[in-house]
Structure formats: C-alpha cells, structure tokens
Inverse folding.
C-alpha cells in the first residue's frame, strides 16, 4: 500500500513538472499543443521523434526550445546531400607528437550528445541517414572497430520536409522504425497564427526556461515504465497493431486490400510507452484505451506502406489507421486526439 501511495505521489509530482515544461515551451512554440505533447511523450518514453512538415512551421525552433526546457546538451546537424557518415559519428585522425611518435586519436562527432537535432534529415543520402541506425537503437556507435557508448540520455529529434519536395530522399524503412513517433506539423489556424504574429514581431520575444535536468529526465523515464497498465489497454494495443498487418489472421479487409506491410513488435512497444507518457502529461495515473486510439496514427503511420494499387487509388495511411481504430476499438482516433 505504501509503495502504491509513493508511486502515485511521484506521478503527480512529475505531472506538475511537465505542466511547467509545457508552459515554458509554449512561450516560443505557440499554439501547437498536440505537437508539443507528442514530442514530450517521446522524450518521456526514452525514444526519438520525427517531425514532418513544410519549411517555416517552427520545427527547428521547437527542438531548440525543448533542449533548453529539458536541460539537455544539444548538437545540431544540418543534413545535406554531401554530408558523410563521419560528419555524424566522428573519425580517427593521425597525430604526430613533439617527440615524433605518431598515433591515431578519435575525434567525436556531433552524435556524442544528449539531444541530437537532425535538421532536414531527408536531404542526406540513404547511406548517411543509415549512420544513425546503431546510435538510435543501441545508444552506441562503432567507429574503426571500437564500440563507443552514447548518453544517457540520448534522443534524436529529426525534422523532415515532405518527400515530394525538391532534393529529398525517402528515409530507409529500418530507420523510420527506430523513430518512436512521427509528428506531423501542420499550418496553424487563424487565431494561432495571429498569436504568433503578435508574439514574434515585437521588440522582444518569449524565452523558454530550464525545468528539467538530464538526471531528472532519466528518473522520469524510469517512472513512466513503472506505471501500471490495465489488461484492456494491452489488448487494445495488440488488437490495433495486429489488425494492421496484412499477413495476420486478425488483419481487416481494408488492410489486406491497401497495405504492402504493417508494423512490427516495436510498434506495440512504442504504443505502450507513449500511452503511459500521455496519461502523465494529461494528469492521469494510468493510461486508457482512448490513449491508444489517440496515439495510433503518430506511432504507426511511418511503420506501414501502401501497396501499388492503393497508391494508384490515392489512398492514405491515415485513413486506413482511422478505420482500423474504429473497427477494433469502436473509437474514432482523430476525435480522441483532438
């Protein structure tokens, strides 16, 4: 009983601290509450987030603001077509000492940080994008045959322009799967854009303040993993994920007709962690089935692919996920998310 009371108290204190974090972030990144919630949930879950949107919507500013609010040492890599893997990971250089002896010394790349901003990640070639695969999954890199640890904490927040834009490359499927969540950053509505105009074109602009430290974030991530999850939530996660796999007996007809492949077990793990984090962010002690419905699209959309026929028809993954959520859970995911 005491352990339960202690856990409740810890979750409530974390919820209050996260409220202060959101307030700090919203001083600069105005009006996009769902975007902020999803990225914070990814950090609380110990994962990485991919922010997708057109240029000029504040994706880079959001990452910079979060680095300040969470107290994380940040590095930024501007991805370009000529970027090389060594520009990310680091490399060994041959140095000559004063006495004439020569030896190799490893110079760390920008990946050796706590929060890595991969800006416009899909402007680099697939070879360079793949340099992050080991770092994102294992929190380590192997350079010149030596295994080197990263963090903790270590998070990648990547920004991506729509793939239809000039000079972009689609991300490898293996790398997409390593992002816990894909966050679509849309145009602001009229009132939000009005608030942005008034807040950012004056003599001064709002500034974010530090709320967390790296150690407190690590403790918060451990606390999220201790949160209890009801059997109904576990079954909801399994129902949604398995229904999105064309080859599974549980797959819906719309999935078999539309998808080339569906999400793997990592998607179910991501949904479980994100549901817990969303509950804390909203001041609740346990996640609900509604959390699963609200998070299904951002967690699953980058882990699925339309088949040729569906692409020719102009189908969208978002519509497929919404139908799966509605049929498996009886909930309209878009309405819960809003």
């Amino acid at each position: 009983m005491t352990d339960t009371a202690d856990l409740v108290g810890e979750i409530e204190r974390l919820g209050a601290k996260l409220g202060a974090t959101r307030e700090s972030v919203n001083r600069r990144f105005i009006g996009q509450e769902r975007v902020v919630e999803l990225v914070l949930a990814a950090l609380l879950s110990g994962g990485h987030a991919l922010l997708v949107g057109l240029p000029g919507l504040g994706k880079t500013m959001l990452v910079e603001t979060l680095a300040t609010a969470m107290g994380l040492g940040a590095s930024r890599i501007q991805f370009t077509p000529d970027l090389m893997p060594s520009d990310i990971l680091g490399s060994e250089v041959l140095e000559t000492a004063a006495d004439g002896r020569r030896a190799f010394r490893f110079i760390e790349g920008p990946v050796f940080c706590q929060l890595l901003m991969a800006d416009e990640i899909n402007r680099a070639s697939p070879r360079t994008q793949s340099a992050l695969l080991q770092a994102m999954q294992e929190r380590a890199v192997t350079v010149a045959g030596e295994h080197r640890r990263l963090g903790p904490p270590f998070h990648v927040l990547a920004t991506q322009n729509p793939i239809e834009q000039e000079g972009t490359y689609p991300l490898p499927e293996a790398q997409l799967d390593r992002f816990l969540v894909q966050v679509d950053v849309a145009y602001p509505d009229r009132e939000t854009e009005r608030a942005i105009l008034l807040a950012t074109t004056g003599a001064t602009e709002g500034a974010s303040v530090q709320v967390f430290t790296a150690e407190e974030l690590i403790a918060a991530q451990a606390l999220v993993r201790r949160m209890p999850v009801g059997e109904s939530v576990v079954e909801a996660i399994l129902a949604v994920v398995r229904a999105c796999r064309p080859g599974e007996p549980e797959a819906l007809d719309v999935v078999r007709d539309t998808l080339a492949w569906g999400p793997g077990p990592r998607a179910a793990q991501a949904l479980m962690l994100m549901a817990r984090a969303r509950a804390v962010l909203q001041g609740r002690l346990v996640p609900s089935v509604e959390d699963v419905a609200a998070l299904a699209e951002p967690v699953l959309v980058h882990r699925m692919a339309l088949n040729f026929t569906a692409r020719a028809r102009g189908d969208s993954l978002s519509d497929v996920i919404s139908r799966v959520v509605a049929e498996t859970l009886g909930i309209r995911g878009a309405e819960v998310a809003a």
User: Anything to note?
Assistant: The first helix runs from residue 2 to 26.
